[in-house]
C-alpha cells in the first residue's frame, strides 16, 4: 500500500500542467461568481487576458516538462508521459492560445462560462494525450465531448442550440458504441491497459472476427471525433452552428489528440487493420471533397474540408510504419496553421452580418478593399490543397511517400488504389478551395454590401499564422526532424 501511495505522489510531478488547468478552471469560475458587475466590454477583455495568461503559463510548464520531466507511466499505468504526449499537449496549448486571440481580436464578448469550459476542454485533451488505459481514454474523451457540446450551444440562439443538440445525439451514439467495444475488449483480455503485452496476446488467441468487431466498436468514438466516415454527419451542422473561434479550435485540437490515441492503439494491435483503414481513409477523403464541391456557405465548406483532411491523416496511419506515424504527426502539426488561419480570415473578411451563416458571396470584391488579408487567406487555402510553396505540399508529399513505401513492402493493390484516388481527390479539392479566393478578387461587391475594416491586431495574428505555412515548406526538416526524434 505504501508503495502505491509513493507511486501516486511521484506521479503528481508529471501531472503538474493538468493540475494547473484545474486551478485555472476553478479560478475563472470563482472570479465569474464573485466579481462585481462591470461594463460588459471590460469584463470580456479581462477574461480573455486571464485565460490567455493561464494557457501561456501552461505552455511554460509543458516546455519545462519536455526538458526535465522523467518519462514513464503515471498513476498505475493509467497514463503514460512520453515525448509524443508532450508534443501533442504543446499542440493543443498552441491551438487554445490562438483561439483566445481569435476571439479577442474579433471582439467576442463571452461570459466567464465560455473560458472555464474551454479550459476544461483543454484539460480533457491533455489527459487523453497520455491515456494508455481504455477507461481513461473513455473518461477523458467524454470530458472533451461534453465540453464541446456546451461550447457549441453556448451562444444560446436557436441555431447554436440545434447544433449543440445534434452534436449531443450523434456523440451519445458514438460514445455508447465505444463503451460497448471497450467492455468487449476487457472481457476478451482481462485488462484495460492496452499497452500491456497480455492485451495483444489475448487478442491473438481470440477469433479474429470477434476481436476485430470489438476493436472497431472501441475506436468508433475516436473516429467520430476525427470526423471519419461513417461518423462525419455531425460535422457540417456543428461547424455552421458554433461560433467561428470555437469551430477553429474544434477543427484541430480534438482531432489531433484522437489521432494520437489511434496511433497508440494501432501500434499494439496484433490484427492487420490496414485494409479497413485504407477503405475508411478513401471513403473519408472522397465524401469530404465531393460534398464540399456543392457548398455555398464558407463554414460548411470548411467542415467538409476538415473531413477530407482527416482522411489524408488516416493515409499516414494506413502505412502501419514508423514513417507513417511521423508523417501523420507532421501533417497534424502543419494543419494547425492552415486551418486556424482560414477560420480567422474567413471571420474577419466576410461581410455577412449573421453569426451563423457566412455565404461565399459575402466575400465578393473584398480582396480589392483588403488585399493583404485576402492574399493571406489564399495562401492558407493553397496549403489545404497541397500545392507547392506551402507546407501543405510537404505534408501531402510525405503522407503519400509513406503510403507508397507500404505498397512496395506489401504489394497490396488496395494501397495502390488509395494512392491513385488520393492524388485525384487532391486535384478535385482545388475546385472548391478556389471558391472564396475567386470571390475575393474576381467578383464585384453587391449593391449595399458593407465595407470591411480591419484592425491591426487582426492582421498581425493572420500574419503570425500564415508565415509558418511558408517557413515550414522552406525548412520542412525543422519540424520533421523533431518529430522523427520521438515517434518510433
From TrEMBL:
<keyword id="KW-1133">Transmembrane helix</keyword>
<feature type="transmembrane region" description="Helical">
    <location>
        <begin position="12"/>
        <end position="34"/>
    </location>
</feature>
<feature type="transmembrane region" description="Helical">
    <location>
        <begin position="273"/>
        <end position="294"/>
    </location>
</feature>
<keyword id="KW-1003">Cell membrane</keyword>
<protein>
    <recommendedName>
        <fullName>NADH-quinone oxidoreductase subunit N</fullName>
        <ecNumber>7.1.1.-</ecNumber>
    </recommendedName>
</protein>
<feature type="transmembrane region" description="Helical">
    <location>
        <begin position="46"/>
        <end position="66"/>
    </location>
</feature>
<keyword id="KW-1278">Translocase</keyword>
<dbReference type="InterPro" id="IPR010096">
    <property type="entry name" value="NADH-Q_OxRdtase_suN/2"/>
</dbReference>
<comment type="similarity">
    <text>Belongs to the complex I subunit 2 family.</text>
</comment>
<feature type="transmembrane region" description="Helical">
    <location>
        <begin position="301"/>
        <end position="320"/>
    </location>
</feature>
<feature type="transmembrane region" description="Helical">
    <location>
        <begin position="246"/>
        <end position="267"/>
    </location>
</feature>
<feature type="transmembrane region" description="Helical">
    <location>
        <begin position="112"/>
        <end position="131"/>
    </location>
</feature>
<keyword id="KW-0874">Quinone</keyword>
<feature type="transmembrane region" description="Helical">
    <location>
        <begin position="209"/>
        <end position="234"/>
    </location>
</feature>
<feature type="transmembrane region" description="Helical">
    <location>
        <begin position="332"/>
        <end position="351"/>
    </location>
</feature>
<dbReference type="GO" id="GO:0012505">
    <property type="term" value="C:endomembrane system"/>
</dbReference>
<dbReference type="GO" id="GO:0005886">
    <property type="term" value="C:plasma membrane"/>
</dbReference>
<comment type="function">
    <text>NDH-1 shuttles electrons from NADH, via FMN and iron-sulfur (Fe-S) centers, to quinones in the respiratory chain. The immediate electron acceptor for the enzyme in this species is believed to be a menaquinone. Couples the redox reaction to proton translocation (for every two electrons transferred, four hydrogen ions are translocated across the cytoplasmic membrane), and thus conserves the redox energy in a proton gradient.</text>
</comment>
<feature type="transmembrane region" description="Helical">
    <location>
        <begin position="372"/>
        <end position="393"/>
    </location>
</feature>
<keyword id="KW-0472">Membrane</keyword>
<feature type="transmembrane region" description="Helical">
    <location>
        <begin position="413"/>
        <end position="434"/>
    </location>
</feature>
<keyword id="KW-0813">Transport</keyword>
<dbReference type="GO" id="GO:0050136">
    <property type="term" value="F:NADH dehydrogenase (quinone) (non-electrogenic) activity"/>
</dbReference>
<feature type="transmembrane region" description="Helical">
    <location>
        <begin position="86"/>
        <end position="105"/>
    </location>
</feature>
<keyword id="KW-0520">NAD</keyword>
<feature type="transmembrane region" description="Helical">
    <location>
        <begin position="454"/>
        <end position="474"/>
    </location>
</feature>
<dbReference type="InterPro" id="IPR001750">
    <property type="entry name" value="ND/Mrp_TM"/>
</dbReference>
<feature type="transmembrane region" description="Helical">
    <location>
        <begin position="167"/>
        <end position="189"/>
    </location>
</feature>
<dbReference type="GO" id="GO:0048038">
    <property type="term" value="F:quinone binding"/>
</dbReference>
<comment type="subunit">
    <text>NDH-1 is composed of 14 different subunits. Subunits NuoA, H, J, K, L, M, N constitute the membrane sector of the complex.</text>
</comment>
<dbReference type="Pfam" id="PF00361">
    <property type="entry name" value="Proton_antipo_M"/>
</dbReference>
<dbReference type="GO" id="GO:0042773">
    <property type="term" value="P:ATP synthesis coupled electron transport"/>
</dbReference>
<keyword id="KW-0812">Transmembrane</keyword>
<dbReference type="GO" id="GO:0008137">
    <property type="term" value="F:NADH dehydrogenase (ubiquinone) activity"/>
</dbReference>
<feature type="domain" description="NADH:quinone oxidoreductase/Mrp antiporter transmembrane">
    <location>
        <begin position="131"/>
        <end position="421"/>
    </location>
</feature>
